[in-house]
Structure to design on (251 residues):
């Protein structure tokens, strides 16, 4: 029995399952760049916010002082001065002083302040100084007002009165373009509301009715002017009669 044991040849151990296959086919090495790209491809998508669009800065809505000052000056104080001249001139000789104080002393600073603040606000908004109808009419009205005020101190006649009424009429158009077109464009808030539109219609009816209603005083005005001219001629005649001819004195 011993001989049989020693004569038996023991072969090599059987290969372990999978060992030979692993040795013949080693695992494929994935390059680092490919692995990184794979990781990048499967990375979760995170949405990004879009870049802000370029836009022109708008005038801030709380900066409504320019429009308010111009409305008060052109549609409030200038008509008040015109009505003062229309009605008071037939009752008091100081009507011209009151008219001048309202038109130049009070309305002047208000209008100049409104125009200056408006130009500053437009320049800050980068919308251009004369880019639309409202701005062009605003500059034209301001120049007309300065010319009217300068000429009125020296020449005060019917042409001056008609020119003043024309400025007020153009100011009504200017104010309407302001709250109908300029306000929505410059502030981005849409229409200013129907209240301003109603007030504008009431005002453009009220002012002409009150002013032209005062034309009934023209007959009184013409009579006073005739009497004033007559008094001037009489006073000049008395002065001429009171002067003695040369060479006749001392008799």
């Amino acid at each position: 029995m011993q001989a049989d044991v020693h004569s038996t040849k023991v072969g090599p151990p059987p290969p372990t399952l999978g060992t030979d296959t692993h040795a013949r086919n080693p695992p494929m090495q994935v390059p680092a760049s490919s692995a990184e790209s794979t990781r990048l491809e499967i990375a979760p998508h995170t949405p990004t916010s879009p870049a802000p669009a370029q836009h022109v800065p708008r005038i801030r809505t709380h900066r409504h002082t320019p429009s308010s000052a111009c409305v008060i000056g052109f549609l409030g104080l200038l008509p008040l001065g015109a009505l003062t001249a229309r009605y008071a001139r037939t009752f008091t000789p100081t009507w011209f002083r009151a008219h001048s104080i309202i038109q130049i002393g009070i309305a002047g600073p208000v209008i100049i302040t409104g125009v200056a603040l408006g130009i500053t606000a437009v320049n800050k908004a980068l919308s251009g100084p004369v880019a639309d109808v409202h701005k062009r009419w605003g500059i034209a009205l301001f120049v007309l007002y300065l010319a009217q005020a300068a000429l009125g101190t020296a020449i005060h006649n019917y042409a001056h009165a008609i020119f003043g009424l024309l400025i007020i009429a153009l100011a009504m158009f200017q104010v309407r373009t302001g709250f109908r077109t300029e306000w929505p464009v410059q502030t981005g808030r849409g229409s200013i509301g129907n209240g301003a539109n109603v007030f504008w219609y009431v005002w453009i009816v009220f002012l002409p009715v009150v002013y032209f209603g005062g034309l009934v005083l023209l007959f009184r005005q013409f009579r006073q002017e005739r009497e004033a001219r007559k008094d001037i001629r009489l006073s000049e005649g008395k002065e001429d009669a009171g002067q003695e001819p040369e060479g006749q004195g001392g008799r």
Observations:
- The chain is about 70% helix and 0% strand.
